[in-house]
Specification:
heterodimer; A: alpha+beta; Sufe protein. Chain: A; 4-stranded mixed β-sheet; about 40% helix; about 20% strand; B: mainly alpha; Ferritin; 2 domains; about 75% helix
Protein backbone atom coordinates (compact mmCIF):
# COMPACT_ATOMS: atom_id res chain seq x y z
CA UNK A 1 0.00 0.00 0.00
CA UNK A 2 1.46 3.38 -0.96
CA UNK A 3 1.50 6.27 1.48
CA UNK A 4 -1.15 8.00 -0.58
CA UNK A 5 -3.44 4.98 -0.49
CA UNK A 6 -2.81 4.62 3.24
CA UNK A 7 -3.84 8.24 3.85
CA UNK A 8 -6.93 7.77 1.70
CA UNK A 9 -7.85 4.64 3.61
CA UNK A 10 -7.72 6.50 6.93
CA UNK A 11 -9.70 9.41 5.49
CA UNK A 12 -12.45 7.20 4.15
CA UNK A 13 -12.57 4.90 7.17
CA UNK A 14 -10.93 6.48 10.19
CA UNK A 15 -10.05 3.81 12.72
CA UNK A 16 -11.08 4.09 16.39
CA UNK A 17 -13.24 7.16 15.78
CA UNK A 18 -15.99 8.00 18.26
CA UNK A 19 -16.80 8.68 21.88
CA UNK A 20 -16.13 5.89 24.41
CA UNK A 21 -18.90 6.00 27.00
CA UNK A 22 -17.18 3.79 29.60
CA UNK A 23 -13.65 5.11 29.24
CA UNK A 24 -11.21 5.08 32.18
CA UNK A 25 -9.65 8.38 31.13
CA UNK A 26 -9.99 11.15 28.55
CA UNK A 27 -7.31 13.60 27.44
CA UNK A 28 -7.49 16.60 25.14
CA UNK A 29 -5.10 18.24 22.67
CA UNK A 30 -6.05 21.75 21.57
CA UNK A 31 -5.02 24.35 19.07
CA UNK A 32 -5.75 27.63 20.91
CA UNK A 33 -5.36 29.59 17.66
CA UNK A 34 -8.34 28.14 15.84
CA UNK A 35 -10.34 26.15 18.39
CA UNK A 36 -9.53 22.77 16.84
CA UNK A 37 -9.28 19.95 19.36
CA UNK A 38 -8.83 16.21 19.72
CA UNK A 39 -10.16 14.08 22.58
CA UNK A 40 -8.66 10.63 23.20
CA UNK A 41 -10.53 8.06 25.29
CA UNK A 42 -8.79 5.10 26.96
CA UNK A 43 -9.92 1.81 28.40
CA UNK A 44 -7.01 0.61 30.51
CA UNK A 45 -6.03 -2.69 32.09
CA UNK A 46 -4.39 -1.90 35.40
CA UNK A 47 -0.88 -3.36 35.61
CA UNK A 48 2.42 -2.08 36.91
CA UNK A 49 2.87 -0.61 33.44
CA UNK A 50 -0.79 0.03 32.50
CA UNK A 51 -2.01 -1.51 29.25
CA UNK A 52 -4.23 0.25 26.66
CA UNK A 53 -7.02 -2.22 25.94
CA UNK A 54 -9.22 0.13 23.93
CA UNK A 55 -8.68 3.59 22.51
CA UNK A 56 -10.84 5.99 20.53
CA UNK A 57 -10.75 9.61 19.50
CA UNK A 58 -13.00 12.45 18.40
CA UNK A 59 -11.93 15.66 16.76
CA UNK A 60 -13.00 19.09 15.72
CA UNK A 61 -10.47 19.58 12.97
CA UNK A 62 -9.47 18.96 9.41
CA UNK A 63 -8.90 15.73 7.48
CA UNK A 64 -5.22 15.71 8.43
CA UNK A 65 -6.19 15.58 12.10
CA UNK A 66 -8.49 12.65 11.40
CA UNK A 67 -5.79 10.76 9.52
CA UNK A 68 -3.26 11.45 12.30
CA UNK A 69 -5.79 10.39 14.95
CA UNK A 70 -6.59 7.21 13.08
CA UNK A 71 -2.91 6.31 12.61
CA UNK A 72 -1.75 7.16 16.13
CA UNK A 73 -4.62 5.46 17.94
CA UNK A 74 -4.09 2.36 15.80
CA UNK A 75 -0.46 2.34 16.94
CA UNK A 76 -1.42 2.93 20.57
CA UNK A 77 -4.03 0.19 20.84
CA UNK A 78 -2.74 -2.87 22.69
CA UNK A 79 0.47 -1.39 24.06
CA UNK A 80 1.69 -0.47 27.55
CA UNK A 81 1.89 3.13 28.81
CA UNK A 82 5.70 3.13 28.66
CA UNK A 83 5.54 2.27 24.94
CA UNK A 84 2.76 4.83 24.42
CA UNK A 85 4.99 7.53 25.97
CA UNK A 86 7.69 6.56 23.45
CA UNK A 87 5.12 6.81 20.67
CA UNK A 88 4.23 10.35 21.81
CA UNK A 89 7.92 11.37 21.92
CA UNK A 90 8.68 9.81 18.54
CA UNK A 91 5.66 11.53 16.97
CA UNK A 92 6.57 14.92 18.42
CA UNK A 93 10.13 14.39 17.20
CA UNK A 94 8.93 14.07 13.63
CA UNK A 95 7.03 17.38 13.53
CA UNK A 96 9.93 19.24 11.89
CA UNK A 97 9.66 17.00 8.85
CA UNK A 98 6.05 18.03 8.17
CA UNK A 99 4.38 21.12 6.74
CA UNK A 100 3.19 23.55 9.49
CA UNK A 101 -0.47 22.56 9.00
CA UNK A 102 0.27 18.84 9.15
CA UNK A 103 2.63 19.29 12.10
CA UNK A 104 -0.02 21.21 14.08
CA UNK A 105 -2.58 18.45 13.51
CA UNK A 106 -0.13 15.67 14.38
CA UNK A 107 1.03 17.51 17.52
CA UNK A 108 -2.57 17.95 18.63
CA UNK A 109 -3.21 14.20 18.40
CA UNK A 110 0.09 13.29 20.11
CA UNK A 111 -0.67 15.72 22.95
CA UNK A 112 -4.18 14.32 23.31
CA UNK A 113 -2.67 10.86 23.74
CA UNK A 114 -0.18 12.24 26.28
CA UNK A 115 -3.03 14.01 28.11
CA UNK A 116 -5.10 10.81 28.25
CA UNK A 117 -2.17 8.84 29.71
CA UNK A 118 -1.48 11.56 32.28
CA UNK A 119 -5.16 11.87 33.17
CA UNK A 120 -5.34 8.14 33.78
CA UNK A 121 -2.28 8.18 36.05
CA UNK A 122 -3.64 11.15 38.02
CA UNK A 123 -7.02 9.46 38.38
CA UNK A 124 -5.30 6.52 40.03
CA UNK A 125 -4.29 8.90 42.81
CA UNK A 126 -7.52 10.94 42.83
CA UNK A 127 -10.52 9.43 41.04
CA UNK A 128 -12.12 12.87 40.61
CA UNK A 129 -9.10 14.30 38.85
CA UNK A 130 -10.36 16.32 35.83
CA UNK A 131 -9.45 15.73 32.21
CA UNK A 132 -6.04 17.15 31.26
CA UNK A 133 -5.75 19.37 28.15
CA UNK A 134 -2.49 20.30 26.46
CA UNK A 135 -2.10 23.13 23.95
CA UNK A 136 0.00 22.73 20.83
CA UNK A 137 3.03 24.93 20.22
CA UNK A 138 3.21 24.58 16.45
CA UNK A 139 1.94 27.51 14.42
CA UNK A 140 -0.19 26.03 11.66
CA UNK A 141 0.12 29.04 9.35
CA UNK A 142 1.27 27.80 5.93
CA UNK A 143 4.85 28.58 4.90
CA UNK A 144 5.01 31.77 2.83
CA UNK A 145 6.96 30.03 0.13
CA UNK A 146 4.38 27.29 -0.06
CA UNK A 147 1.05 28.87 0.91
CA UNK A 148 -1.04 26.23 -0.83
CA UNK A 149 0.64 23.21 0.70
CA UNK A 150 -1.89 20.39 0.68
CA UNK A 151 -2.16 17.53 3.07
CA UNK A 152 -3.22 14.76 0.73
CA UNK B 1 -34.03 4.24 31.46
CA UNK B 2 -36.54 5.91 29.13
CA UNK B 3 -33.94 8.42 28.01
CA UNK B 4 -31.45 5.62 27.23
CA UNK B 5 -34.01 3.72 25.16
CA UNK B 6 -35.08 6.86 23.27
CA UNK B 7 -31.44 7.79 22.66
CA UNK B 8 -30.76 4.29 21.29
CA UNK B 9 -33.73 4.56 18.94
CA UNK B 10 -32.60 8.05 17.90
CA UNK B 11 -29.09 6.77 17.17
CA UNK B 12 -30.40 3.84 15.10
CA UNK B 13 -32.52 6.19 12.98
CA UNK B 14 -29.58 8.55 12.51
CA UNK B 15 -27.33 5.70 11.34
CA UNK B 16 -30.06 4.27 9.06
CA UNK B 17 -30.54 7.72 7.50
CA UNK B 18 -26.82 8.01 6.70
CA UNK B 19 -26.59 4.42 5.45
CA UNK B 20 -29.53 5.04 3.09
CA UNK B 21 -28.26 8.42 1.91
CA UNK B 22 -24.77 7.11 1.15
CA UNK B 23 -26.10 3.98 -0.54
CA UNK B 24 -27.95 6.41 -2.80
CA UNK B 25 -24.60 7.94 -3.76
CA UNK B 26 -23.29 4.52 -4.83
CA UNK B 27 -26.18 3.73 -7.14
CA UNK B 28 -25.86 4.68 -10.79
CA UNK B 29 -29.47 3.82 -11.67
CA UNK B 30 -33.01 4.98 -10.92
CA UNK B 31 -32.64 3.34 -7.50
CA UNK B 32 -30.65 6.40 -6.43
CA UNK B 33 -33.76 8.59 -6.43
CA UNK B 34 -35.71 6.07 -4.38
CA UNK B 35 -32.89 5.83 -1.84
CA UNK B 36 -32.73 9.63 -1.65
CA UNK B 37 -36.46 9.75 -0.92
CA UNK B 38 -36.18 7.07 1.75
CA UNK B 39 -33.27 8.86 3.34
CA UNK B 40 -35.46 11.99 3.46
CA UNK B 41 -38.13 9.99 5.26
CA UNK B 42 -35.62 8.64 7.77
CA UNK B 43 -34.31 12.15 8.40
CA UNK B 44 -37.90 13.24 9.02
CA UNK B 45 -38.25 10.39 11.55
CA UNK B 46 -35.13 11.67 13.25
CA UNK B 47 -36.70 15.12 13.63
CA UNK B 48 -39.94 13.62 15.00
CA UNK B 49 -38.10 11.78 17.76
CA UNK B 50 -36.00 14.87 18.35
CA UNK B 51 -39.11 16.99 18.81
CA UNK B 52 -40.39 14.45 21.30
CA UNK B 53 -37.10 14.78 23.22
CA UNK B 54 -37.48 18.56 23.23
CA UNK B 55 -41.15 18.49 24.22
CA UNK B 56 -40.35 16.27 27.17
CA UNK B 57 -37.23 18.19 28.08
CA UNK B 58 -35.03 15.09 27.70
CA UNK B 59 -31.35 15.66 26.91
CA UNK B 60 -30.09 13.98 23.75
CA UNK B 61 -27.02 13.82 21.52
CA UNK B 62 -26.21 13.15 17.89
CA UNK B 63 -23.66 10.47 18.87
CA UNK B 64 -23.51 7.62 16.38
CA UNK B 65 -21.24 4.71 15.57
CA UNK B 66 -19.37 4.74 12.30
CA UNK B 67 -21.54 3.54 9.45
CA UNK B 68 -19.65 1.00 7.33
CA UNK B 69 -20.57 1.21 3.65
CA UNK B 70 -17.68 -0.33 1.73
CA UNK B 71 -19.34 -3.08 -0.29
CA UNK B 72 -19.09 -4.53 -3.79
CA UNK B 73 -22.79 -5.00 -4.38
CA UNK B 74 -25.64 -2.57 -3.78
CA UNK B 75 -27.83 -5.34 -2.36
CA UNK B 76 -25.40 -5.84 0.52
CA UNK B 77 -26.19 -2.30 1.62
CA UNK B 78 -29.91 -2.70 0.90
CA UNK B 79 -30.00 -5.74 3.20
CA UNK B 80 -28.12 -3.75 5.83
CA UNK B 81 -30.65 -0.90 5.57
CA UNK B 82 -33.56 -3.33 5.94
CA UNK B 83 -31.84 -4.83 9.00
CA UNK B 84 -31.45 -1.32 10.44
CA UNK B 85 -35.13 -0.60 9.79
CA UNK B 86 -36.14 -3.80 11.56
CA UNK B 87 -34.01 -2.77 14.51
CA UNK B 88 -35.75 0.62 14.58
CA UNK B 89 -39.15 -1.12 14.53
CA UNK B 90 -38.12 -3.30 17.45
CA UNK B 91 -37.19 -0.21 19.47
CA UNK B 92 -40.12 2.04 18.57
CA UNK B 93 -41.87 1.46 21.89
CA UNK B 94 -39.24 3.68 23.50
CA UNK B 95 -41.23 6.58 22.07
CA UNK B 96 -44.54 6.96 23.90
CA UNK B 97 -46.14 9.24 21.32
CA UNK B 98 -48.28 6.76 19.41
CA UNK B 99 -49.05 9.14 16.59
CA UNK B 100 -45.32 9.27 15.82
CA UNK B 101 -44.72 5.53 16.11
CA UNK B 102 -47.80 4.73 14.01
CA UNK B 103 -46.55 6.93 11.17
CA UNK B 104 -43.04 5.53 11.49
CA UNK B 105 -44.21 1.91 11.40
CA UNK B 106 -46.24 2.62 8.30
CA UNK B 107 -43.29 4.34 6.55
CA UNK B 108 -40.86 1.60 7.56
CA UNK B 109 -43.21 -1.12 6.34
CA UNK B 110 -43.54 0.50 2.96
CA UNK B 111 -39.84 1.28 2.61
CA UNK B 112 -38.82 -2.28 3.48
CA UNK B 113 -41.17 -3.74 0.88
CA UNK B 114 -39.93 -1.27 -1.76
CA UNK B 115 -36.28 -1.96 -0.93
CA UNK B 116 -36.82 -5.67 -1.53
CA UNK B 117 -37.58 -4.85 -5.16
CA UNK B 118 -34.40 -2.89 -5.79
CA UNK B 119 -32.11 -4.47 -8.39
CA UNK B 120 -28.52 -5.24 -7.60
CA UNK B 121 -25.65 -3.13 -8.94
CA UNK B 122 -21.90 -3.43 -8.91
CA UNK B 123 -20.77 -0.51 -6.70
CA UNK B 124 -17.15 -1.31 -5.83
CA UNK B 125 -15.97 1.60 -8.02
CA UNK B 126 -17.29 3.99 -5.35
CA UNK B 127 -14.42 2.82 -3.10
CA UNK B 128 -11.54 2.08 -5.49
CA UNK B 129 -9.62 5.27 -4.56
CA UNK B 130 -8.79 5.96 -8.21
CA UNK B 131 -9.63 9.66 -7.83
CA UNK B 132 -10.61 9.75 -11.50
CA UNK B 133 -13.67 11.00 -13.27
CA UNK B 134 -15.05 9.17 -16.30
CA UNK B 135 -14.01 11.01 -19.50
CA UNK B 136 -12.31 13.86 -17.63
CA UNK B 137 -8.55 14.24 -17.49
CA UNK B 138 -7.37 15.83 -14.24
CA UNK B 139 -3.79 16.60 -13.26
CA UNK B 140 -2.49 14.89 -10.12
CA UNK B 141 -2.55 18.26 -8.36
CA UNK B 142 -6.19 18.84 -9.33
CA UNK B 143 -7.11 15.32 -8.19
CA UNK B 144 -5.51 15.84 -4.80
CA UNK B 145 -7.06 19.27 -4.32
CA UNK B 146 -10.48 17.93 -5.28
CA UNK B 147 -10.12 14.89 -3.01
CA UNK B 148 -9.24 16.99 0.01
CA UNK B 149 -12.00 19.47 -0.77
CA UNK B 150 -14.62 16.71 -1.02
CA UNK B 151 -13.59 15.09 2.26
CA UNK B 152 -13.59 18.40 4.12
CA UNK B 153 -16.78 19.74 2.61
CA UNK B 154 -18.87 16.56 2.78
CA UNK B 155 -18.14 16.46 6.52
CA UNK B 156 -18.85 20.19 6.77
CA UNK B 157 -22.22 19.88 5.03
CA UNK B 158 -23.22 17.00 7.32
CA UNK B 159 -22.10 19.07 10.29
CA UNK B 160 -24.14 22.07 9.11
CA UNK B 161 -27.25 19.95 8.58
CA UNK B 162 -27.01 18.71 12.15
CA UNK B 163 -26.04 22.06 13.70
CA UNK B 164 -28.94 23.91 12.06
CA UNK B 165 -31.27 21.03 12.78
CA UNK B 166 -30.36 21.12 16.47
CA UNK B 167 -30.74 24.91 16.56
CA UNK B 168 -34.12 24.65 14.85
CA UNK B 169 -35.38 21.91 17.16
CA UNK B 170 -34.42 23.94 20.20
CA UNK B 171 -35.66 27.35 19.07
CA UNK B 172 -39.18 28.78 19.05
CA UNK B 173 -38.17 31.79 16.98
CA UNK B 174 -40.07 31.43 13.69
CA UNK B 175 -37.85 33.94 11.87
CA UNK B 176 -34.66 32.08 12.76
CA UNK B 177 -36.23 28.70 12.13
CA UNK B 178 -37.12 29.71 8.58
CA UNK B 179 -33.46 30.58 7.98
CA UNK B 180 -32.23 27.39 9.67
CA UNK B 181 -34.52 25.30 7.45
CA UNK B 182 -33.25 26.98 4.27
CA UNK B 183 -29.65 26.38 5.38
CA UNK B 184 -30.45 22.70 6.11
CA UNK B 185 -31.95 22.32 2.62
CA UNK B 186 -28.95 24.01 1.03
CA UNK B 187 -26.54 21.74 2.90
CA UNK B 188 -28.49 18.67 1.80
CA UNK B 189 -28.11 19.77 -1.80
CA UNK B 190 -24.37 20.30 -1.37
CA UNK B 191 -23.90 17.02 0.51
CA UNK B 192 -25.61 15.18 -2.32
CA UNK B 193 -23.55 16.92 -4.99
CA UNK B 194 -20.30 16.16 -3.16
CA UNK B 195 -21.35 12.60 -2.23
CA UNK B 196 -22.07 11.75 -5.85
CA UNK B 197 -18.70 13.16 -6.88
CA UNK B 198 -16.95 11.14 -4.15
CA UNK B 199 -18.61 7.96 -5.38
CA UNK B 200 -17.57 8.72 -8.95
CA UNK B 201 -13.99 9.32 -7.81
CA UNK B 202 -13.94 6.12 -5.75
CA UNK B 203 -13.46 7.90 -2.41
CA UNK B 204 -16.87 7.56 -0.79
CA UNK B 205 -16.96 7.56 3.01
CA UNK B 206 -19.57 8.48 5.62
CA UNK B 207 -18.69 11.58 7.64
CA UNK B 208 -17.48 11.02 11.17
CA UNK B 209 -19.78 11.62 14.14
CA UNK B 210 -19.97 15.09 15.63
CA UNK B 211 -18.55 16.18 18.95
CA UNK B 212 -21.39 17.41 21.15
CA UNK B 213 -20.00 20.90 21.57
CA UNK B 214 -20.24 21.51 17.82
CA UNK B 215 -24.03 21.70 17.91
CA UNK B 216 -24.62 22.48 21.59
CA UNK B 217 -23.15 25.97 21.62
CA UNK B 218 -24.09 28.85 23.89
CA UNK B 219 -23.47 31.79 21.61
CA UNK B 220 -25.49 31.74 18.39
CA UNK B 221 -24.21 35.16 17.41
CA UNK B 222 -20.59 33.99 17.55
CA UNK B 223 -21.51 30.79 15.73
CA UNK B 224 -23.04 32.79 12.88
CA UNK B 225 -20.07 35.15 12.74
CA UNK B 226 -17.69 32.18 12.55
CA UNK B 227 -19.99 30.55 10.00
CA UNK B 228 -19.79 33.59 7.74
CA UNK B 229 -15.98 33.47 7.90
CA UNK B 230 -16.07 29.76 7.04
CA UNK B 231 -18.36 30.39 4.08
CA UNK B 232 -15.94 33.06 2.86
CA UNK B 233 -13.14 30.47 3.19
CA UNK B 234 -15.23 27.91 1.30
CA UNK B 235 -15.80 30.44 -1.46
CA UNK B 236 -12.05 30.87 -1.80
CA UNK B 237 -11.58 27.08 -1.94
CA UNK B 238 -14.22 26.79 -4.65
CA UNK B 239 -12.58 29.56 -6.65
CA UNK B 240 -9.17 27.86 -6.35
CA UNK B 241 -10.67 24.54 -7.40
CA UNK B 242 -12.48 26.11 -10.33
CA UNK B 243 -9.12 27.56 -11.46
CA UNK B 244 -7.29 24.25 -10.86
CA UNK B 245 -9.71 22.18 -12.92
CA UNK B 246 -10.70 24.77 -15.52
CA UNK B 247 -8.10 23.56 -18.04
CA UNK B 248 -9.24 19.94 -17.60
CA UNK B 249 -12.97 20.34 -17.38
CA UNK B 250 -15.21 23.25 -18.19
CA UNK B 251 -18.05 21.37 -16.49
CA UNK B 252 -16.20 21.14 -13.17
CA UNK B 253 -15.05 24.73 -13.33
CA UNK B 254 -18.61 25.91 -13.84
CA UNK B 255 -19.84 23.59 -11.05
CA UNK B 256 -17.42 25.08 -8.54
CA UNK B 257 -18.25 28.61 -9.66
CA UNK B 258 -21.90 27.72 -9.12
CA UNK B 259 -21.17 26.42 -5.59
CA UNK B 260 -19.04 29.48 -4.91
CA UNK B 261 -21.92 31.77 -5.84
CA UNK B 262 -24.36 29.77 -3.71
CA UNK B 263 -22.20 30.52 -0.69
CA UNK B 264 -23.18 34.20 -1.15
CA UNK B 265 -26.78 33.21 -0.42
CA UNK B 266 -25.72 31.33 2.74
CA UNK B 267 -23.75 34.35 3.91
CA UNK B 268 -26.77 36.62 3.25
CA UNK B 269 -29.00 34.27 5.29
CA UNK B 270 -26.57 34.19 8.19
CA UNK B 271 -26.26 37.99 8.09
CA UNK B 272 -30.06 38.19 8.17
CA UNK B 273 -30.11 35.90 11.22
CA UNK B 274 -27.41 37.99 12.90
CA UNK B 275 -29.35 41.21 12.30
CA UNK B 276 -32.46 39.56 13.74
CA UNK B 277 -30.61 38.46 16.89
CA UNK B 278 -29.14 41.90 17.41
CA UNK B 279 -32.58 43.49 17.03
CA UNK B 280 -34.15 41.35 19.80
Amino acid sequence: MTADALVMEHMMNPKNYGKMEDSDAVGMGKNPENGEKVAIYLKVKEEEDPFIEEISFQAIGCSTTIVAGSLITTEAKGIHFSRAEELVSATLGLLDTQSPEDAACTEMVALALKASLDTYLEKQKDKDFPMISYHIKTDCTPNEENPDAKTV
Amino acid sequence: MRRTQMQKLFKEIHEAWLATQFTGFMSQTQSRQELYEFSNILFKHLTWIENDFVKQNIKYTYDINQVPIRVDKLLTMIHDIVRRMELIESELDACKDESITFRMRSDLDYMKSALEKIADEEVSSAFNMKKEFPDIELSDEAKDALTLFLFEESYKEYELIMVYNYSKANSTDAFLNRIFQILIDESFFHLRSFGQMMAQMGILGVPRSLMEEIYKFDDLEQFLKDGIQEEIGAKEECKKLADAVSSSSEHFASFFNFINNQENYHIALMEEALAHINKR
